[in-house]
């Protein structure tokens, strides 16, 4: 039986046309939009505050949409279906809770950042202000590693999928996929990221909804009940090791649980160390941070849950029919681990149109994440390297120039790294499993930097370094112990990655606590973090007329501090509840029940997943329009101008300094100082 790859469903011209042509179209469109925003709303992307944090005025709807888009990795769209194909119905639930939970938890960090570092542009500014140069350099390394691995793994999966569908050269795809994004991010900054996130997610969600319906309606399946009936015998024909009775229709799946542990720990590390997530938190309005992240996090759950379930299980059934590209053989392990389940499924159920749809969503997902990652990495370079160690008196114009250099440099470095993965035989599956080993050591120290006053400088410096060293040692040691070797193949297996990720995550926790009590920093106060300042000068070295200026007296007025504290408590409890509900109370009892889904339960399960997906479509596509987006579009169409307020303010207020503020400025300033020290 031949194991050669099936011919591409689309021509190379389609591949190059989408990757370059659509990329250029988006670039031109976003440059135009950026200029319209400057003309009608005074949002000048040539000022650092606008370029880096969108003047901290992004509303709830756009924040929620951006959160969904931030997780809309091509790795998720390709990975959830292929792992479901391997391990069955339990896997997409573990994938979903491994990406939704930490976003809801991050809502707490987002509002805490509003309370304690209201002027920050990057996570690394917090680290430097609190722990100094050595810790700052360590976090620069960890955050850069985080962004490099996430960005490059996405390019590995996306370029492999586009090559399989179009025959496009894989190296060309790796370099050209981000190119259009480089152009509009260069000109538009994080505001362009939010807008393109919205547009990309709008298109992706519509296609995902169409795909799920198309898969269930295709004649090889026909209905949800028929999908269940077709899956039952496949557990006997191709039993899944570690699953109850080898079934694809059981929650008792050892490999799914192992993956779930790796996935949830890795993604906590990804979110907490990804400066892009922090920047979107900084960019959100105070009133938008908590609801935006909670709405977005819970809405995103439906993407891997619904799409992974239907696409992965549907592929198992359709693969048995002549419409499957590799028929009569099953896919090889290499094809599956490269993320080709979805591309092959799309060809089988919808021919060239289906293949084109996958090329489009992979392109959209890839470029959306690329924009966020480029902003994150360029900000590290401009703020935390250039502005901190090369030119300590950098002006706004110089920082913008270095941000532009960082955008282009990040593209070249990450595309080259992804090319190295390709050439070295590293695939999407290997990267998904090993990411947490290098990312997770900074998880607890990063969170404690913002929410735990007692974490000391020595603890912050030592604990992530020791955690990373332990994780790497366990990774190599377990591989040697179990497989008598430490090759790329053995290091990518489940148990070396599982034990190493757990070690790198949890070793820093007791270590930072113990060291903080042994070597305390007694003089630290939360108010010390207000030393982080905004960059308010324009290209001429003067304060921009439309800059969002920080008035500490107004910002830290007692009622506003009380509001932020209340939202912080809400975010904390919602985060804890989300973790318990999605990670403990739902999947674990079902794992221990040792049962196979009945037809009725399976139908209910898929229907709930579909309803959840439609709700996610509403949050991502229509909530931003309801929450001010439609009004801004109308303002642009009618040619009106609406300048932003000059003073930042919580709770979505106007931000105008009233006479009362002016008369009591001294008193409020004193109250602000007391409040900041209190929390």
UniProtKB/TrEMBL annotation:
Q: What is its main location?
A: membrane
Q: Which domain of life is it from?
A: Eukaryota
Record flagged with keyword Coiled coil: no
The record's CDD domains line, in alphabetical order, gives:
SLC5sbd_DUR3 (cd11476)
Q: Name one GO molecular function term.
A: urea transmembrane transporter activity
**This protein's name:** Urea active transporter
Membrane topology label: Multi-pass membrane protein
Q: Which UniProt keywords apply?
A: Membrane, Transmembrane, Transmembrane helix
Q: Whose protein is this, by species? A: Zasmidium cellare ATCC 36951
